[in-house]
Amino acid sequence: MFKRFFAHLIFAFCIGISQIAWASDMAREKRIADNIKDSLIIGEVVMLKANGDEFMALINNQEPKKIRGSVIILHGMGSNPNSPQITHPLRRQLAELDWITASIQLPITAQDASISEDLALIKESGARIQVTLDYMHENYKNTPCVLIAHSLGAIMAANFLANQEKATCDAVVLIGLPTLPSELPEAYSIELIKKIDIAMLDIYGSQDLNSVKKLAPTRKLTLKKNNPLNRQIEISGADHAFTGLDETLVRSIHSWLSYVFKQNNH
Fold first, then answer.
1. What was the pLDDT predicted at 110?
2. Cα–Cα dist 33/15, whole Å
3. Which run of H or E residues covers position 235?
4. Of 73, 197, 209, 246, whose CB has the highest number of CB atoms within 10 Å?
């Protein structure tokens, strides 16, 4: 009798663990936000709210004579909205090219968390992406809207877009999109991009992670089927963080966006 009760207890405990909804480490988010506020030189801080939690958005609006469009930047795992790798170069240099940029804080785990815990935050990120889209649509009406996302942020962007009944932005750039081992459907990037029909740029480095490079040919085939504007670019010599190649990354993205929206390159 006791053995049967104990077995049921263990089973119920396991089911409960499997159904835990991981939430962002808000204390860690606050530390990151405070550090950014103390050192921010370019752009302004706007606090947005999703699911009852405030999160940081860095808005870079240099008030160009003609706005090319609004860009929402999603950072990768272990990064932040103003990281010197990927996010800061994107938000600064694209603003110089007449794009309004918003780099946002995505849900994050504790520093010692496992990759599976990071992946469990994919769904939570959707609300923040939507709130930021709403903010950009409200403040910069009648201009193209673009999502640019790196690494885990790229998976979050792909999951968000794959589950939209109606397109909420006009183009997406996925930088270093990995395919990571997981049983979560929202983490399987190849299946996600099959469901996205807006213009998409898949960009990665020749020295990128194996989880990015291995399925690049598969992603390329999917891109060709989905939209004639889709492109895949491999940047020679670039690692996952595009170390030393920030300008090449930005120019590649800007050139493709200019082509998509029929604008003249600077």
1. 83
2. 35
3. strand 231-235
4. 73
**pTM (2 d.p.):** 0.89
As given in the structure block, the two tokens for residue 26 are 């808000």
| Partners of residue 205 on adjacent β-strands | 235
Looking at residue 1, its pLDDT comes to: 44
- 10 Å Cβ neighbour count for 136? 23
- Whose tokens are 């029929």? That residue is 262
Q: Which structural domains are found in the chain, ordered by start?
A: 23-260 (3.40.50.1820)
CB atoms inside a 10 Å sphere around CB 182: 16
Q: Quick count: other Cβ atoms within 10 Å of Cβ 169?
A: 23
How buried is residue 239: exposed, middle or buried, by Cβ count under 10 Å (0-12/13-18/19+)? middle
Low-confidence ranges of the chain (pLDDT < 50): 1-20, 264-266
Cα 102 from Cα 104, distance rounded (Å): 6
Pair of tokens at residue 2: 């006791």
In whole angstroms, give the CA distance from residue 3 to residue 18: 23
